[in-house]
Amino acid sequence: MQFDYDxxxxxxxxxxxEIPNATVFENEHALAFNDIEPQAPVHVxxxxxxxxxxxxxxxxxASAAEQAGFFAAVAAVCxxxxxxxxxxxxxxxxxxxxxxxxxxxxxxxxxRVLGRMLPDRA
Length: 122
Ligand code: 5GP
What we know:
The chain is of the alpha+beta class. 25% of the residues lie in helices and 20% in strands.
């Protein structure tokens, strides 16, 4: 599958410093920041610094170092936020996944019981 990256997406602008963010954690390969419209007491977005459209793009094409850096950021965010009782990690992908921002991001949501993952029936 071909993944075409649009460098005008909002997270690319955040990575370039053109738009501010509330950073929770940063390393060489990933940035984590609070969602601007939180759906739970904890709602952090973790993004790779590389130009990847979606989780399947990242899994197929990111280097081992980029993948390790990304998951190190996941661990750091879970350590730094109040999710000891549990959380949900979500990566909305393309149209059926209702992905709004075409730069791979993982939502980490927690701080309350989140309910079932999906409605029983669409
Ligand atoms: P998606 O639907 O693509 O999985 O989620 C995109 C998320 O990005 C949404 O939860 C939305 O609130 C968040 N978001 C959109 N624009 C901005 C922004 O400029 N700053 C931050 N921090 N979050 C944003």
